[in-house]
Structures are given as C-alpha cells and as structure tokens.
Amino acid sequence: MNVGIDKINFFVPPHYIDMVDLAHARGVDPNKFTIGIGQDQMAVSKVTQDIVTFAMHAAKPMLTKEDLAAVDMVIVGTETGIDESKASAVVLHRLLGVQPFARSFEIKEACYGATAGVQFAKNHIQANPDSKVLVVASDIARYGLASGGEPTQGAGAVALLITAEPRILAFDNDNVMLTQDIYDFWRPVGHQYPVVDGHLSNEVYINSFKQVWQESCRRHQRTAADYAAICFHIPYTKMGKKALLAGFETEDQVQQERLLTRYEESITYSRRVGNLYTGSLYLGLISLIENATTLSEGDRIGLFSYGSGAVAEFFSGRLVEGYQQQLNKKSHEALLDARQKLSIEAYEQLFEEKIDIDTNKTFTDDLLYSIHEIKDTIRYYKDGNE
C-alpha cells in the first residue's frame, strides 16, 4: 500500500513588499537581497490575519465533503502558535467542518514541525488505510523592522492531505533523521522575536543536510543520479542552494547542473513569498512540481526538512501517474499576481500594529477567516456567517 500526498495547496496573504524597495529604505545595495539571499518579494500580513486565517485559506478549497467525513486527524505544524495551551488545529477542525471523531493537535520544532506531522500522518494511514489526515504548515516569520533577519520574513500556509494510494506523491520508507542540541535560532517564552546566530544557523543547516544525505546514500545505496530533484527547506532561496552545492561537491558537473536546474524551479514561488517557516519545504515542493520542465511519473524527489535547534530529516517520494491533474498552477499564480504591493511606509505601519488579547475589540478586514473580534481573550474569525 502506498501512502503519501493526495492533495496540496498553499495560501499567502494579499499584501507584499518589493525587496528592492526595502533595500533602498534600509540603505543597502538591492543585490544583497535579490541576489545575495535570492528574494524578490516578501509576503506581509495584517494583525487580524494569523495562522488559523492562513490555514483555512490553504485547506478549505481543496477539501471535499467526502474528505471532511474521512479525515480523522488534523495536525498543524507551526512555530507561531496563538495560544500556549489550546492548539490552533482544534479551531481549524471546527471552521473546516471536519467530522467530530478526530484527533487534532499542534507540533512545534522550529521549521521542522510540519514534517513531523507528515510522518505521524503517514504512520497513521499505514495502520488505518481508509482514513485521511490533514496536515497544515502555517506560520508568520518575523524578526523586527530593520533587523538582520528582516529580509527573510514572510507569511502563509501549506495544506497537505495524506492518504492511502495518493494521487501526487507516494512516500518511500527511507527516512533519515538527525537531532542536535544547538542554539542557532530560538525564541524564549515571552520574547516577541527569535534570537538568531545567523552564521551558526547557516553552518548547521548545511552540515545537517550533508550528514543526513550521506547517511541516506549509505543506507539505501543511492547516489544523486537516483533523484530527479531535491527540495529543501527554504528560509531564503540562496540557503538551499548553498546546501545543495556543499552536499554534491563531489558529484560530476552534469549531476550538479541537473539538480541546480530543478532547484531553481523549486524556488519560483518562494522568491515571491519569503520564509514560511514550517511551510517552506512544502511550498518548494509545490513550486517544483508545478514549474519543472522535465519531471515525469515515477520520478523520485528527495525532501530535506530542517528545524533550528536542531532537527533535520531527509526522505523521498515518487510522483504518481496522473499527478499533473491534481496541481493548481493557474490558481497559485493568480493568487500571487492578485496581491497588493505596499509601500515601505505602509508595511512598517502594519508591522507595528498589535492586538491586545486582553481588550475586547472588533476589527475590519476584507479577508475571510481573519479575526473580526476579540472577546474575553478569545479570537473570533470571520467565516461569512456573521
């Protein structure tokens, strides 16, 4: 029995800034952002839009009534949760209308959380082939105005429906995991923004990939030639490229160029969105399969997941016959093209807005599933039935 991704979709908020504009505002060479880290645009969210808002927009369009009746587990991977106790997955379960006899919870380990959810879902489906699991990676990456991490911010969500006999990607049973207690990026309880050791984080990311890649090759007797493409966690698009080049420096030039070409296809959407934290790897997967020029049914795609702190995992899957019919390239491109560009001044004003969870207040936001009221510390979402 095959288990894997049957449906996949992403959503980003309807506003963005241009990285050249940001560079000019911060007094730096635009090439530092567009070439140095490989970003052209950055998704920007309003204070009334949180991880539930994005998760709903990513998941709802792809789920049928039959899916909602079959889903018996809802998992949200996030590092920007909205409550220290209650999982956003519980709220998502209600708003989506998933049948009541389901398990719903959140997973946190920096940007690795969604992959943990995917693997949990895979094991569940192997034991319960008739069920379906919804995994959503939803995050808001923020480092502060004019901070070193500002150009690597972003926001949005990716939703994956994990089932038996999937129609997009069937997972191989070849996972290699790595855990190291390293403080390269962390956010202590009570801190608004993360603490980052940028140089160390880059170093650990690259070394983690090399370790899990080499161990995977040793265990499964594979080489780069066995993979049609490899997707990476993408905190910024140049990061995955650095790891790819470091990991395949001993491969011949033909293999390197082939994988680099596929990598460029996998970052098409991320260049326009920025960092989705837990969703970045899976946004890269969507970008790859919707924009690749040479992929075909049966091709093996490698996936490298990384969460600072640090947990890494390398695994793979094979494209299923007819996978092209399950993709949504036109709607995803339309979503990105329809966004409104903000001036840097408008972006900074949005960034500084805060919600006081202890103050009852109503809000106005045209986006569905945005927060329309705070009452007695509870978030109420606009669902079209107010």
From TrEMBL:
Domain Hydroxymethylglutaryl-coenzyme A synthase N-terminal, first and last residues per copy: 2-164
Question: Which segments constitute the Hydroxymethylglutaryl-coenzyme A synthase C-terminal domain?
Answer: 180-244, 254-366
Transmembrane stretches in the record are: none
Please state the Enzyme Commission number of this protein: 2.3.3.10
Give the GO biological process terms: acetyl-CoA metabolic process
Keywords attached to this entry: Transferase
- Pfam families in the record, alphabetically? HMG_CoA_synt_C, HMG_CoA_synt_N
Query: What enzyme class is recorded for this protein?
Result: transferase
Per the Swiss-Prot or TrEMBL record, the active site comprises: 79, 111, 233
**Any one GO molecular-function label of the UniProt entry:** hydroxymethylglutaryl-CoA synthase activity
Q: Which InterPro entries match?
A: HMG_CoA_synt_C_dom (IPR013746), HMG_CoA_synth_N (IPR013528), HMG_CoA_synthase_prok (IPR011554), Thiolase-like (IPR016039)
Similarity field:
Belongs to the thiolase-like superfamily. HMG-CoA synthase family.
Binding residues annotated for substrate, in chain numbering: 148
Q: Which CDD domains match?
A: init_cond_enzymes
Name under which the protein is recorded: Hydroxymethylglutaryl-CoA synthase
Give residues annotated as binding (3S)-3-hydroxy-3-methylglutaryl-CoA. 29, 143, 242, 275
Transferase among keywords:
yes
